[in-house]
Amino acid sequence: MALFHLHNPWVFTAGILGNFVSILVYFAPLPTFIQIYKRKSTLEFQSLPYTVALFSAMLWIYYAFLKKNAILLISVNSVGIVIETVYILIFLFYASKQARKETMKVLVFLNVVLYAVIFGGTTLWFQGHHRVIVVGWICVTFSISVFAAPLYIVFQVVRTRSVEFMPFSLSFFLTLSATVWFAYGLLLRDPCVALPNILGFILGVLQMLLYGIYKNSNANKGELKLTDEKKQVAEVHINIIDIVKNVPGAVDQVHPLDSQTSSCSSSNGISSDDDEHKDADHSKPTDQDRAPVSGGEK
Length: 298
Description:
Layout: H1 9-27, H2 30-39, H3 48-67, H4 71-94, H5 97-125, H6 128-148, H7 151-160, H8 168-188, H9 191-246, H10 257-267, H11 273-283
Helix pairs in contact: 1-4, 1-8, 2-4, 3-4, 3-5, 3-6, 6-9, 7-9, 8-9
């Protein structure tokens, strides 16, 4: 039973569509890593979904080579290995020391030690069709793990009431991919391909429902944050005004420049032309100061 059937157009179409949608799924976390790059930090994002997805893709390629004529499975998982590796490298570059250490532990355990054990064990202990069956069901187990890994994010969304760390695009494409690959496995009557995607469909729908429920919470938090910032700015302005009022001499700093100049000039003993005229006027005797001449000139 081959996974690549040119004689069955429905199987071939489902496989091509599955490749296309799965590649979109691989690119769905791209906004997350753009955000990590801009903030230079992994924030609360986890590397577990990407390390598990890398391990699953490696297993599916092994299964596809054993199955033979499974070029559609080889192509999509080859792309997946490349993209997931890039994601993990970006995460390791911007992660904290503790997060980097934990990621490396999981990466070495899954993708080096455990993969070597599975590859070596199935090669030594099983032959022919039996090896295909065993590896196929191992793939089923870890494919379920790939779909179950985002459950942590689901719990985080419910706990924080925020969908910041659960992009809608990822949930949508996971659901669509699970639907297409389920149809592909069903047409081939291959339970190893069909069964994991049942859980994938359920989890994808659950994530989209949670996104619809909690997406407005993000907007409300943004509005509250903006309101708080406006209040803080207003308080700063009020405090500045109070300081200006209470500090001695501070009020003079808001007077016009001409007033400051004149006041400074007066304090330094420099009189203006107006002051000179005023002094001259005061020096002249007024009519009241002039005494009337009685018996003056005869």
